[in-house]
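Q: Convert this sequence to structure tokens.
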Amino acid sequence: MKKIVLTLLTLGLAISLHSQIIKTEELSEVIVYATNYKYLNNIDTEEEASIPVEMLRRKVAAFDVKGSEFYQDDYDLYNINFFIPEGKILAAYDKDGKIIRTAERFKNINLPNTVKKAILDRFPEWTITKDVYLVTYHNEKGVSKKYKLKLENGDKTLRVKVDEKGEFL
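A:
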């Protein structure tokens, strides 16, 4: 009986040790370009961006101008349009692939809580029926964000503009 228990114990240890053998492989080199981190840092402030907006912004930041079919050494500026059903971004890149400026427009997205709270506080009986989110980014001038909202209360209609902090313009 002792022999069987010792044999099983030895066999169990051998199998577990065999499964822990470390295999090493050499991976291909990965190059990370952080040329547009400034755009993402400026555009993504404390607000909670809608998921489609955030995903499109990441695509804009990750776009490789030099690797695109449009790239030529002769040009200093490249205007590229990015579209999704909820909106679009027009981005201007320099010849090194850095974002110089963007113009963004999105319709009917999930609004940040600050904007919702500002509308609810000022217009408690009104409902937001349409919204347009406009963003302009410039690498030297910074970011401007605003929301154009259409509010309805029964048969009354009202249009308001609000910035990302919930302040009415």
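Strands lie at 77-84, 87-94, 99-107, 127-138, 142-153, 156-163.
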